[in-house]
Amino acid sequence: MALVVQKYGGTSVGSIDRIKAVAARVAKARDRGDRLVVVVSAMAGETNRLFKLASELTELPDVRETDALVATGEQVSAALLSIRLQGLGYPAVSFLGFQMNLATDSNHGRARIKSVQCDRVMRALDDGRIVVVAGYQGVNADGDITTLGRGASDLTAVALAAALKADACEIYTDVDGVYTADPNVCPKAKKLGRISYDEMLEMAGLGAKVLQLRSVELARRYNVPLVVRSSFSEAEGTWVGKEDQSMEDVLVSGVTLDQNQSKITIAGVEDRPGLAARIFGPIADAGIVVDMIIQNASADGRTDMTFTIGREDLPRTLDLTRRVANEIGATDVRHQDQTAKVSVVGLGMRSHAGVAARMFQVLANERINIEMIATSEIKVSVVVNSKYGELAMRALHDAFINGAATAAPDGLA
Amino acid sequence: MALVVQKYGGTSVGSIDRIKAVAARVAKARDRGDRLVVVVSAMAGETNRLFKLASELTELPDVRETDALVATGEQVSAALLSIRLQGLGYPAVSFLGFQMNLATDSNHGRARIKSVQCDRVMRALDDGRIVVVAGYQGVNADGDITTLGRGASDLTAVALAAALKADACEIYTDVDGVYTADPNVCPKAKKLGRISYDEMLEMAGLGAKVLQLRSVELARRYNVPLVVRSSFSEAEGTWVGKEDQSMEDVLVSGVTLDQNQSKITIAGVEDRPGLAARIFGPIADAGIVVDMIIQNASADGRTDMTFTIGREDLPRTLDLTRRVANEIGATDVRHQDQTAKVSVVGLGMRSHAGVAARMFQVLANERINIEMIATSEIKVSVVVNSKYGELAMRALHDAFINGAATAAPDGLA
After folding, report:
1. Using the beta-carbon criterion (under 8 Å), do A57 and B87 form an inter-chain contact?
2. From the candidate CATH numbers 3.20.20.10, 3.40.250.10, 3.40.50.300, 3.40.1160.10, the one assigned to the domain spanning A3-174
3. Interface TM-score (ipTM) > 0.85
């Protein structure tokens, strides 16, 4: 009898009819004999509705109260799904964050899980019940409700799967798996059957929205087998797990595109130790995440520093950067609202040289100028003008995935 | 520095603008120096919306899950009010049922309060905070969320006022006090300045909807001074408290009308011991509240038994009654869908005879037939045909209140 944690996202529980469909799916798994823990998100649109109510009351709503407010979304979904399951004759019981002591720190709005007390969940499972869990929420040491950050119902599911040593964690969503690229941009994108944690991490971090980044990290740490599936079909999904030999045979597993970036350049910075810290210290203190940082080779003792950030952070970051630029005597601060980051990801890169070179050639063939480059062990990212983002993604997908599904011999590029 | 518990109903917090208005009122009380605990209901319509979602999923939604579902309504209001107060610069903190261990039994949907642990509330007050409390909800010994029944945010407020030994419990609603009759029916109805717990209890039980019955009982038991006021105006409200001599001078404090009743008669019942138990046992077991019961004097060994119930219970009660009637050999079961109960209430009745007789005379003058009569120490109720309900109310109000504000000499009727 397998112990399975299932997680259904907001679209999957977005209406009374959708909740009925989820209940039917859960019931079917139960009929197969699985022991089930089902984690649910808020009904689609509900979390935004609640955030909006708060923002209509004041500019910066208190974070503790906002958490208590938005956590109701998942509480409603969990109760409704449990009501439906019981209406169908299946014993079900819902638990909220505080009821299973899903303990977090006190960073409201983006709390980190410290521990989960599973005995009440285990007892309910032993009693033959389907356990329905409100995702996204926990409780701090004071008994205050916390939330784990946007998309964090995935995290609740993985944390429970790890704590319960579940056989699998199934993430049900509105797409039927992880694709080699966003099918809306790349019509030729293919669904992956398997992908490694590391590749999924890179892809999640690079803008593939199918799984939340932190939940993949947690799954990797505790070796939780994840599968991403559609709640709207019976199609096989994508398994995310430990890498194996066959995975390395695939040179590039996916191509991602992030259109939500802005670029800032500080020009004419005196090239001496400590300057990067002067520039990026205040930005980090403001809680702004800097993605890529490029420093050009120094000429006549002065250099240009370019970095990218999420577009929503541009006004605040520009403000901070201009202040610092003034203090350190930089000659200019330039920025570009919209840039696109295109990346190729694949375990195969580790053992095969030439992916970056081939990538640059593909983009050159399309006459797309590369503005920044960053690489890691299993990915290469480039920043290009936003208007070429989709073209770049399609060209790279054609070259690396539709053109060459498996690793090319060294040096082919 | 007075400690005041304020309670705002659903209409009072029914929109973002209304929540802002409530926050402004709370802030004003705070500026006067009061220590404040503010209990809120769900935004108007929200509780019904949640019940409806559950009922769309199954016919008889599980009660534990339904409580977890509907309790979100008050959680949202409490968080929003606290967010607004903090936005205005006032330190506020919200507490849910489980966070102040408002302990109840496990009768989901109509749980009874066992205790309230006030230390966290007191600590927050001592820290100078305004404490905002989600009404209507508690937690049972297992940590499950319970609700206290419709309108029970009043009960939360009174329970907290009792536990905190508050100086007053202010119930803010959409009317500006307790009236001698429903102003919609009796344009000449007057607002009462003061009323005793006992009179308020009778009036709440008889259909005056301004205060929840159980909360008045609790206020009487713990001697909590209540005041009913409008959240939409600055008008003085109605104080509900211990009776004093001046209250007894008023013969009749109010006239109430309950149009939501049905009447059932079992005719030709053999008049022997145990029959009433046979008839009303199954009805009580089904959780149906029987209001008035009249048994006519027996003639030739057989009698008629007539009783009233809430109209929503008519189909189930008829079904049960017909079954019993068959078993005990009654000759007939008759019913009337809509009947009206009209009552006059007043402490003065204790010491002044003749109220009932005068009431019957007033109704006779209007040619209204009385179908049933019931009396208690401080009230007289009659059941009349539904279509005469409002006329009866107005006539009695004219006679007892507009005509004679204070007690008439004995025997005037």
Report:
1. yes
2. 3.40.1160.10
3. no
